[in-house]
Write a structure and sequence with these properties.
Shape: globular
Strand content: 15-25%
Number of strands: 8
Strand order of the largest sheet: 5-6-7-8
Mean pLDDT: 87
Structural class: alpha+beta
Radius of gyration: 22 Å
Largest sheet: 4 strands, mixed
Helix content: 10-25%
Order of helices and strands: HHEEHEEHEEEHEHH
Distance between the termini: 57 Å
Low-confidence stretches: 205-217
Oligomer: single chain
């Protein structure tokens, strides 16, 4: 059941809610099974909120921040989600029939088994999203960016309305998103042509859509061993231990910087040759440094081991090894990356 306090504050209006969220950073919002039918939540800060099985039909969530939110099995039929941020959101099994998702940010969202019949996804960003067994019957996909989305033979696109799509996306340093590479390059798809191409792609090979193979989850960064008991995350065919690390990777991508995430390095140690791993080995303007994301597993007991690893890297010429708190990395990744670049400039001056 929903937390009664959380629900009561939300029903006081978005301004009250957002101010309360600002004063309570990191609080886990629990709105499971909440009845928010038709509620105006434009611009609401609901990132990481648990809204699983919530009733949100006809609700107005335009411009709302729902990144990393759990909306699995929620009823969002006829909801307004235009320009909403739904990156990494869990929308598995959600009812989004006739929902307005125009211009929504759905990159890395999981829409598996979701009902998107008659939904408006025009100009939505669906890059890296999972649309396994998703129902797009009569949905509008014109102008959507479908870079590296994951589809399978159960994804229903037969009756989709689509005049053209985009197959790449670019982020600048300020986080502005630009979708590029229109398909078809000129003109529009004929009625039914998009679905026809989709079928051929599933059966044969990559043409303008990209089916991520089932083996994609075997992504491996130079042999790094991840704990099989812990959840890992995939971004651009690279494996990460947390979504926070992906935030930093995206920020480094926006900055156009060479970086190696979670890679093993072979080097000299006091005990001989060994493998040591850095969260991010970064080359900025010819200067090499290491950026570490301190999560909950970075305990005081591990600090001695971590300091020894940092000394080893420094002895090999890596002058800058800096650690940043995970919450800051998640909330302000571009700021963290720019601060790290300044540290590199100072460290090599």
């Amino acid at each position: 059941m929903a937390n009664e306090q959380h629900l009561a504050i939300l029903k006081q209006g978005v301004e009250v809610w957002n101010e309360w969220k600002r004063k309570n950073p990191g609080l886990k919002v629990d709105l499971r099974w909440a009845n928010l039918t038709g509620v105006d939540m434009r611009g609401a800060k609901l990132s990481e909120a648990n809204l699983s099985e919530a009733k949100l039909s006809e609700a107005n969530l335009s411009d709302a921040n729902l990144s990393d939110a759990n909306l699995s099995d929620a009823n969002l039929s006829e909801a307004i989600l235009s320009e909403a941020i739904l990156t990494y959101a869990d929308l598995r099994g959600a009812n989004l029939s006739s929902a307005n998702l125009s211009g929504a940010y759905l990159s890395d969202a999981d829409l598996s088994r979701a009902d998107l019949t008659y939904a408006d996804l025009s100009n939505a960003i669906l890059s890296e999203s999972k649309v396994i067994a998703t129902n797009f019957d009569h949905a509008t996909l014109t102008g959507a960016c479908i870079k590296d989305w994951s589809v399978n033979s159960q994804t229903k696109l037969d009756k989709v309305v689509c005049e053209y799509v985009y197959v790449s996306v670019k982020y600048d340093v300020e986080g502005t998103v630009t979708i590029e590479n229109r398909r078809p390059i000129e003109g529009n798809f004929l009625p039914g042509e998009f679905a026809s191409l989709y079928k051929k792609i599933i059966e044969n090979t990559d043409l303008i859509l990209r089916k991520t193979p089932e083996s994609a989850n075997t992504a491996n960064n130079q042999g790094v061993q991840f704990n099989p008991n812990n959840k890992t995350h995939i971004w651009e065919r690279l494996t990460f231990r947390s979504k926070t690390e992906i935030k930093i990777a995206e920020a480094l991508d926006r900055a156009g910087t060479l970086f190696l995430p979670n890679c093993l390095a072979r080097l000299n140690t006091p005990n001989g040759r060994a493998n040591k791993e850095a969260d991010f080995l970064i080359c900025y303007n010819g200067k090499w440094g290491i950026l570490e994301v301190d999560g909950p597993y970075h305990t005081p007991e591990r600090r001695v081991e971590e300091q020894e690893r940092e000394r080893i890297f420094r002895r090999h010429g890596i002058k800058v090894v800096e650690r940043f708190d995970s919450s800051r990395c998640y909330e302000n990744p571009d700021e963290v990356v720019q601060e790290f670049f300044k540290m590199l400039e100072i460290g090599y001056s």
